[in-house]
Amino acid sequence: xxxxxxxxxxxxxxxxxxxxxxxxxxxxxxxxxxxxxxxxxxxxxxxxxxxxxxxxxxxxxxxxxxxxxxxxxxxxxxxxxxxxxxxxxxxxxxxxxxxxxxxxxxxxxxxxxxxxxxxxxxxxxxxxxxxx
Length: 132
What we know:
The protein has one helix at residues 98-131, and strands spanning 8-16, 20-31, 35-40, 49-57, 62-78, 81-89. By secondary structure, the protein is α+β, with helices and mostly antiparallel strands.
């Protein structure tokens, strides 16, 4: 869990006072069909519920999984921020609902990006050594 997933952020709203809400953008560090791990400076407690929008910024369009309801299951402090484990609730990850389909699409694209990145990083080192 060293680095955030590429081009993926979580957006959610936090109540600030009686009538104001703040839009928060958090980095996502892990993602699967059942939940995610995100990092933010906002304070939540295990048992709190969040409504997340996962947004993957792509060159020509954004892939958005909106309205994912999540339950905070774990909190770990790291410097002035917190890592939160969030379990998705209220939809079937294998179903054909719109959020489930968008989440599946984001996971596919992430998998391809990480595969390309690992091939690039592992392939460049031996080539570099041959040149030296």
